[in-house]
Amino acid sequence: MNAAAIAVGRFFRYGNFAIGVALSGLVVLTALVSFVWTPHSAIDIEIVDKFKPMSATHWFGTDHFGRDVLSLIMVGARNSIAVGIIAVSASVTLGTALGLFASARRGWVEEIVMRLSDLAFAFPAVLTAIMITALWGPSVINAILAIAIFNVPVFARVTRGAANAVWAREYILAARAAGKGGLRITVEHVLPNILNVLIVQATIQFALAVLAEAALSYLGLGAQPPLPSWGRMLRDAQSYLYTAPEQAIYPGIAIAIAVLGLNLLGDGLRDAFDPKLARKR
Fold first, then answer.
1. ∠ CA(95), CA(131), CA(148), 5° rounding?
2. Averaged confidence pLDDT in the chain
3. Over pLDDT 70: what percentage of the chain?
4. DSSP state, 242?
5. Full-prediction pTM beyond 0.85?
């Protein structure tokens, strides 16, 4: 058995990781399939077919516009994953850079970065989205921007804390004695040794980004019609909770599966990277 197979097997020893991979994989697979196939169009409106029950033609029925609910959920998965990937990638890049810079320079530089992070925490994603919407209007791009801005201080703080621990290690002193500068030490020694922390945090923030996207779309601040969104499906369904409750159940289950899967995945990664922590729980 090669080293890669052994490493993968070590991760799958943790049940939460295996379940997280299965649930997250289901959501990703659904999004990928939607690029090439959906049972029906997720955009076309057929009022005469509204609120049709589950059938061989419409597996999850139709909504108040006659659109196929399964098709909406499949395309909505694509939207949620895209928003999460872009927002978290942007926040990881900027937040990690700020955290590494603060840890490498210390002193007043570190203090300024941390105080700016505290200031950013005062504006949650929803409030940030409202301010951005007031300037540029509601859209997916603005929702991504709001989620990314909110997550930057999270990664800055996590990176700075993990990097400070690495900077106190003996091999960093040896690297300095060898004449390596701060930038080279950061790239060659600090960043590789905190990657596991960043991967776990990124997975958790990905789950929160999916939830935030649904919340913003529910409030009308995210994806706009005709682009399908799980959050907007929930908003549309609230007017029919007594006559067609399944309209809220299906997107709600989709959001729950995505968030639960990513949280379990992050939990499993944390246990795999730090077995001692897993034994304490």
1. 20
2. 90
3. 94
4. T
5. yes
